[in-house]
Structure to design on (103 residues):
């Protein structure tokens, strides 16, 4: 199995959270191709999609977009990469917040 590491930023990444009307600061994240992230969303159960949309209101799924990560999204990403890509993302599924940058 291939192992990937979470990206640790020297300076925090700021991403708007429109539901909370504030910016979230992240010091760790992952970069994912937009087409793969679309596949991850398509595989989500409905309640997980609703929670994702709560954290990322009206954000487009296209290259260059930053998204707010959360534990249920981490599980979805982790499961997708393990099952579809035979890849483990070390540290993604540990309950800590993170960002997703679509490439």
């Amino acid at each position: 199995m291939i192992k990937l590491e979470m990206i640790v930023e020297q300076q925090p990444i700021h991403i708007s959270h429109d539901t909370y009307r504030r910016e979230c600061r992240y010091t760790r994240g992952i970069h994912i191709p937009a087409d793969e992230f679309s596949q991850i969303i398509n595989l989500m159960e409905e309640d997980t999609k609703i929670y994702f949309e709560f954290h990322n209101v009206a954000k487009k799924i296209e290259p260059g977009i930053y998204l707010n990560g959360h534990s249920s999204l981490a599980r979805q990403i982790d499961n997708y990469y393990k099952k579809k890509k035979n890849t483990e993302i070390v540290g993604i599924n540990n309950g800590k917040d993170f960002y997703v940058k679509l490439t």
User: Anything to note?
Assistant: The mean pLDDT is 92. The chain has three helices and six strands. The two ends are 23 Å apart (CA to CA).
